[in-house]
Amino acid sequence: MSRRIHACRLAVFTAAMIAAGNVPAADFPATPPVPGPALHLSVPTPSTQTLANGLQVVSVRRAGLPLVTAQLIVRSGGEMDPPLLAGLADLTANLLSKGAAGKGAPQIAAAAEALGGSLDAAAGWDESAIGITVTTPKLPQALGLLAEVVRRPDFAPAELERARTQALDDLRLSLSRPAALASLAAARGVFGEGAYGHSRGGTPASLARIGRADVLRLHAALYRPDNAILILAGDITPAQAQQLAQASFGDWPKPATPLPVRTAGKAASRVPAVLLIDQRGAGQAGVVAAHAAPPRGDGDYYVGTVANAVLGGSYSARLNEEIRIKRGLSYGAGSSLMPRRDTGLWLATAQTKNPSAAQVVELMLGEFRRLGDSRVGADELAARKATLIGGYGRSLETTAGLAEQVGELAVYGVPLDEVGKYIARVQAVTPKQIEKYAGRHLDAGAGTVVVVGDAAQFAPAIRQAHPQATLLESTALDLDSQTLQPAAGK
Amino acid sequence: MRLRPAALLATVTLLATALATPPVAAAELTIPPIPYHQRTLPNGLQVLSVEDHASPNVAVQMWYHVGSKDDPQGRSGFAHLFEHLMFKSTKHMHAEQFDRLTEDVGGANNASTGDDVTNYFEVVPSNHLQTLLWAEAERLSNLNVDEANFKSERAVVQEEYRQSVLANPYGKLFNAIDPHSYTVHPYKRPTIGSIEDLDAATLPDVIAFHKTFYRPDNATLIVAGDFDPKQLDAWVDQYFGWIPKPAAPIPQVTAKEPQRRKNLRYTVTSETAPLPAVAVTWLLPSASDTADSIPLQVAAALLSQGDSSRLYQSLVYRHQVAQRVGADADGRVGPGLFTAYAILASGHQPAEAEKLLHEEIIWLATQPIPAAELDKVKTQLLTGELKQRQTAQGLAFALGQAALIDGGPEHVNTDLTALQKVTEKDVHRVLQKYVTGAHSVTIDYLPQAAKGTTTSGVAK
């Protein structure tokens, strides 16, 4: 197989080196020039159709360059991990491309990469996705490959062992990062025994337990056309999308059995409200403050989005302003709002030198409180809305970004034309709504704070403000336990 | 005449055709050249621009030809610390006003410091282009940092050091590569510096550094995206044209890194890394030596781009001694580095990975390379380029890299042509010359249990 590749002739336009009309330094304006009239962002409208087997096909056009991103999304992710089998959905997604339809893992990787892309698969919360970005001419082959790995994976025992070993090493790596470990512990604090409370990447014990039968069972139960969405974003028309989807996925049979029932995302928590985890020798402390948030379908979704933009959604937002810009305590502090199907998560994070962890905890809690205590000023609100809207517009500039935005709407069953309404919805949010929202959802008493680091350097100071803070050794942490602590008497 | 990307796509086999023919039919992949415009002001400022109206945004980037190789003596990390200070006050702007002019109006900004260059990059709705040009000219000509801002920003940079070097389990390894790989060239100083050298920096150092390196004849302004070229030229002349070109010459690094005379080995330990690692480096020619640097990039991609790459297949997949592998041809203005590394899988030692790394490199340097494999990496590299060019910011970065590192702005287009022509013979030649036929530096990275700190009142 060989392709001849042509390069276009170089087109360079070199102008004469003339700079006319230099002004002397004295004429350099002392104030910034006023911007020109505001511009209109045009957002492409997605098209959607459902194949006879129930597969939802969504296409959205951006034709500037000959690129297409293809994403096959299953509307189920880590929340479907059975008890004791944390990490099963992620391991299953990961194994799709490791052998399918008579091809081994190396052949599948070579085939995807020969098309110029790579097959990237992972389970998130509420979704598992596998996707590839290729140049338009390679799309039919890429979709053929995507269909093979989604519909006919082998889950060979040797590949399961490989994936298990890798997942265990990935987990060790991730747990050695203070902020990553703190986020994991905070999620257990917020969601408790609920479906979002466990480690999506698994735990040492759960990964060891997962067998091939578990993987086969999860795949059979969830990877089915009536639980899936195919997103095609880029240089493609709706008619082409329909034709390609039909060719690759049209004969994917829909099982007669009903889809498995989901369990509640959030349940009672037994994690202390302030948890300190000692990781000796840690070069920094990871500080996290977390709260439960409303689900994606909540009527106040955009209020939450704007509230988070004010709190910690960007460089100039409050958390970074207080922690980094004013005090130099961190390279970066921020927050994110992650709404899910029946609940959601607010997570604020920062890394700081161990001795300043206590100060960062107080600054973080103070900013959560301030959101509900006082109304956001008009200028600040306008600025943070502009930041949100600008970032949103830029996220739609690439085929992969477009696929991600549209995919998220599709997963949560939000009408797809919402992609074009984002700007108006954000603009409509008022300071009063934010105050009310924060009062309702960010009650300071209901959150979880986790600090991971060299505890000798921060535990005494944190205990002064939070005498109830519990200290655990990172080496003794039990990620399978509802309390994160080893079972008593063990 | 100015071409827009859409007009250049006529040579691409479009989807409709691809559907009508069997999927294996060879499809010709053509990367449209970037139709950039170039000029230089009398004060020496180089201006590159490329019009692209795909979105109503415009990217403005200032690339200064100064990097950590120019850190003053005893001040490692200074060029990077300075980069942070460029967001503080100027004669006509208060601290963080750059954020007001970008983030607050729906744009974004950032900056980065490398060994050779420091770049400041913004993207804004295009009705704010004039404002940003004014602001970039302002901080080039009128920087005015005070002591309080200097100290708080230095603390931020020290946290950046802790986050990227100390709290990142493999940060210490990657930070040790340059210091162990160079003997004479200032590339041996890590860009992030050290806590002690950062502590030693003073406000007068900041003023001297700005005066020495931040001058129009040491800068390249790049504008990409939605703008009117005539209007751009007029604004650039108005805001940048008056800035004087200093009479003093720009200091240049003259150190010559000698050829290595023997293989060397170092050990670095980490209290937080869960698994050992190993990295091996070789010296490379300047990135602007494209006859060699482009085949070296192809070699690195053959070794490590994607799960079908040679190192992944050998170390991670077949032998399962490594959890992660990489190879990189890091081209610089001066001597670069070819680096291969592996983070070990549980239960394996650096020596096992090191042996396999060398075997794969020697095999690639001497044995036939299947045409399909060579074709695969070219498709990967070209697709990666196309993906980068989807945004105004991506176009501007491609131009900056070409202009400041790869030998001139024309390389943004000619290097892709050259890439398509790389042969097996080229890959063999460059690997034999710079890697298998040269001396290596090897760094073993070993986890070491934390000692010392004891915690009071351990777990209940």
UniProtKB/TrEMBL annotation, chain A:
Peptidase M16 C-terminal domain span: 210-388
Domain of life of the native organism: Bacteria
InterPro entries: Metalloenz_LuxS/M16, MPP/UQCRC_Complex, Pept_M16_N, Peptidase_M16_C
Endpoints of the signal sequence: 1-25
Keyword ATP-binding: no
Annotated ranges, domain Peptidase M16 N-terminal: 57-171
Keywords associated with the record: Signal
Pfam families associated with the record: Peptidase_M16, Peptidase_M16_C
GO molecular function terms listed in the Swiss-Prot or TrEMBL record: metal ion binding
Record's protein name: Insulinase family protein
Native source species: Rhodanobacter denitrificans
Automatic annotation (TrEMBL), chain B:
Annotated signal peptide: 1-26
Molecular function in Gene Ontology: metal ion binding; metallopeptidase activity
Superkingdom of origin organism: Bacteria
Gene3D superfamilies, alphabetized: Metalloenzyme, LuxS/M16 peptidase-like
The Peptidase M16 C-terminal domain, residue ranges: 202-381
Domain Peptidase M16 N-terminal residue range list: 47-192
Keywords, alphabetical: Hydrolase, Metalloprotease, Protease, Signal, Zinc
InterPro entries: Metalloenz_LuxS/M16, Pept_M16_N, Peptidase_M16, Peptidase_M16_C
GO biological process: proteolysis
PANTHER family for this protein: NARDILYSIN, PROTEIN YHJJ
Family of the protein in this entry: Belongs to the peptidase M16 family.
Protein name: Insulinase family protein
